TrEMBL record:
DNA-binding region: 50-69
Polar residues biased stretches: 1-17
Source organism (scientific name): Nocardia terrae
Coiled-coil zones: none
Highest taxon, organism lineage: Bacteria
Domain annotation HTH tetR-type: ranges: 28-87
Region listing for Disordered, in residue ranges: 1-20
Pfam families attached to this UniProt entry: TetR_C_43 (PF21597), TetR_N (PF00440)
Keywords assigned: DNA-binding, Transcription, Transcription regulation
SUPFAM superfamilies: Homeodomain-like (SSF46689), Tetracyclin repressor-like, C-terminal domain (SSF48498)
PANTHER family xref list: HTH-TYPE TRANSCRIPTIONAL REGULATOR BETI, HTH-TYPE TRANSCRIPTIONAL REGULATOR RUTR
Protein name per UniProt: TetR family transcriptional regulator
Gene3D superfamilies the UniProt entry points to: Tetracycline Repressor, domain 2 (1.10.357.10)
């Protein structure tokens, strides 16, 4: 089945993962506050939380939320892309460092992010939205950083020689499912434990 195309999502149609053009500074701050509040509420209370409650948590009026995100579908997508962009920034910072084990730090953060946002990711999957299609530049940037960090760890002898970046990204996606299946989304300790088991599989076998 073909993935749905993102054109009907009310985000900048030429670059759907960017902040809409022409926003004033206060409007940008409001938009980011809404995204932050939505991410927290979706993680804590599920996807049924009303948009008006998101507005209250963000400290803005309901009309502000509706102007930026006329539908919940648009908000789900924007929350996911915002989180992905945050991961790219974290990955870039790790890539600029010299820690040979940084790939484990990044992958653990990616798995934790997936656990925190599992409800939103499930909603997008059900609607057949693929972030690799909706926000290809961001997804490609994250994969590129993972690849660089993986190569650094491999050179240092910290990961298996037979691991590819495609396999690593597949393991991260699988970790979301494992954490969700174990009902540990609201238990960071158990979610971290599951992520650790998965990451141990990347280490060399002696």
């Amino acid at each position: 089945m073909n993935k749905q195309q993102p054109q009907h999502i009310p985000i900048d149609s030429t670059n759907p993962h960017s902040i809409p053009r022409g926003l004033r500074a206060d409007a940008r701050r409001n938009r980011q506050a809404v995204l932050h509040a939505a991410q927290q509420l979706f993680a804590r209370e599920g996807l049924s939380v009303p948009l008006d409650e998101i507005a209250r948590q963000a400290g803005v009026g309901p009309g502000t939320v509706h102007r930026h995100f006329p539908t919940k579908e648009a908000l789900y997508l924007a929350v996911s892309i915002d989180q992905l962009e945050t991961l790219v920034a974290e990955a870039a910072a790790l890539a600029d460092g010299d820690d040979p084990a940084a790939v484990f730090t990044l992958l653990a953060r990616m798995m934790a992010n997936g656990a925190e946002n599992s409800a939103v990711k499930s909603a997008l999957a059900a609607a057949e939205f693929d972030l690799r299609i909706v926000a290809p530049e961001v997804a490609t940037a994250l994969t590129g950083h993972v690849s660089d960090l993986l190569n650094r760890a491999r050179t240092a002898g910290l990961v298996r020689d037979d691991i590819t970046v495609e396999e690593v990204m597949a393991l991260v996606a699988g970790a979301f499912t494992a954490i969700h299946h174990a009902n540990t989304q609201t238990d960071p300790g158990r979610a971290t434990h599951i992520a650790g088991i998965i990451l141990d599989g990347l280490r060399p076998r002696y």
